[in-house]
Amino acid sequence: MTVTTAATKDAQRAAIDESGWGARFKFFQPHNPAFWVYVIGVGAGAIGMIKYFGPALGGTYRLAVTSGIVFFGIYLIPWLIFLRRQNRYTAQPGKLLATGFVWGAVAATFWIALPANTALLEIWTKLLGPSGASTWGAGFSAPIDEEWSKGLGLILLIALAPRLVRSAYDGFIIGAFIGLGFQVSEDVLYAYNNATSSFGVGQLESSLFILALRGFAGITSHALFSAVFCAGVMWILGRAPGERRIGRGVAACLAAMFLHFAWDDASGLFAWSNFLIVVGPYLILMPLAIGTLLVVRRLASAKERAWMRELLAPEVEAGVIDPPLLDAVSGLHKDRRHYRKVVHSRHRARHLVESAGDLAQEIAAAGGQETERVAHARAEVLRLRGT
Amino acid sequence: MTTGIPGWVPVEHRWFGLDRRQMKPAVFVLVVALLLIYGWPALNAIVPWDNPTRAGDVLNLGDGATAVPPVGWQLEDGTLVSDRTGVSPTSDNVKLVKAGTTIQMTGASFNGTAAQFLDQVIRSEDPEADISAAPATFTTASGLVGVVRSASGSGGDELLAAFKMSKSDPAAAPALLVEVAAVPGEFQQVSREIDTFLRSITSGVNE
């Protein structure tokens, strides 16, 4: 039996309502025009993909494409595990994230970015000459075409799940999944292109080379750029109360585009030093990109952390969750690290934080009502706390 | 007010069965996507090429290898020696265009002879291609020996030339493919320029 004040219970209901946590995502929405735009985009992208890879799969480059798909399919696994861990606070349903991933992998790449980049690169070649375009063309094209094509996926998901996609952190996580889809799709395309540049000689070695090259560079690639860009889009749109920060949103979008530009045109930016051309992307741009990501993640999570605190406040009042556990489940990495010290066990701290997250999830799914599942989740927290 | 049933669109918000409230984001996405997909190609179509090769221009093929392009062709891809930019001989690309004729040069890494390289190219690009003429030896002015094959059809004429970019150790040297494609009736008009261009290819200063 829990004892809570009316004020905390009202705040809890308000947090559930504002965050949309617990709402279900249904993909098939024939009444929703955004659904049809999504279907058109992914359909046209799939046709583009078949046209691009189809001849290769039936001919000389079959090994390059299939090995690329297998290698980058395996490469995807640790990324999904990592991003699942980031999908905390008012976590997004897997089906919604998968919808974003498919947009990034199929529509953003093969429907929009591929034809747009081809044309824009040629425009830069005409304006800057072949040499200038080879130095600057990629960085002047990809941040525009690719960040926008991925960002459009977020706009569609907002229209498909308006209750679920509310905060900047929602944009951050969904953006990461859209970007990951784009990244893996592009990696397979690079494996194929690299094999064609050697006219089909050593296709397996070629795919392994691309896996090593793009696998490491993938740390600061599309998933990161899109997470920052889409968090910026959410700040501009301001879909959660008090979260409209147009200046911050524009800055985040521009930061993502600048990082993308700098990564693509590192040879031009560091042209004055042969040493930096080689190591600059890893010693300067990679830390800069990761630093930007961490700052954006911290800022973006503020609203979600506040919701989490409000959602669990009645449980704190009732003594089910103690304040250090509330700090850990609604806090940052340093708060969770601190909690490990408080309970003197990494293992136990992880279990307690996860069980508190489960309780929050069940309360949200039940709309703040008492259900059997809420009672069970609460009992689990108490069991793990040993009270 | 909505009925509260998921998926139920109140009648005042319907437009041909669609929910008008979600029309704005859907139209925004469609318009921006179409602008990116068709806007850039449309702009590209009205921006003309203006990068003609001039007397004295020398193409940089990497590792000191060069070629002298015919004067007055549009250089759409490739680096000139005067650009002072690094070029890898195994990934360089050159594209020269004049009217209905295109010259495409592609560097690649390949272990073997120029003839084996050309066979690999034909096998990988289009094994069914109607390349009727037998391979012929072609020697450049600097003494670099390559292999040439040609093809003719209703779509026009094509010439493929393959070189290994070293006279002393060709087997391990980077390979260079030159593909010339011309619309019907065009090849004869530029054949002398193409012959001079192919003969100008050098394998590098260290050779």
UniProtKB/TrEMBL annotation, chain A:
Ranges annotated as spanning the membrane? 34-54, 60-83, 95-114, 212-237, 246-263, 275-296
Q: Does the keyword Nuclease apply?
A: no
Keywords for the protein's UniProt record, in alphabetical order: Hydrolase, Membrane, Metalloprotease, Protease, Transmembrane, Transmembrane helix
According to the UniProt entry, its GO molecular function terms are: metallopeptidase activity
| Pfam assignment, any one | PrsW-protease
Q: What is this protein called?
A: PrsW family intramembrane metalloprotease
Q: What organism does the record attribute this protein to? A: Paractinoplanes aksuensis
Taxonomic lineage of this organism? Answer: Bacteria, Bacillati, Actinomycetota, Actinomycetes, Micromonosporales
UniProtKB/TrEMBL annotation, chain B:
The alphabetized UniProt keywords are: Membrane, Transmembrane, Transmembrane helix
TM ranges: 26-43
Reading the lineage from the top rank, the first entry is Bacteria
The keyword Transmembrane appears for this protein: yes
Q: What is this protein called?
A: Uncharacterized protein
Give the organism the record lists.
Answer: Paractinoplanes aksuensis
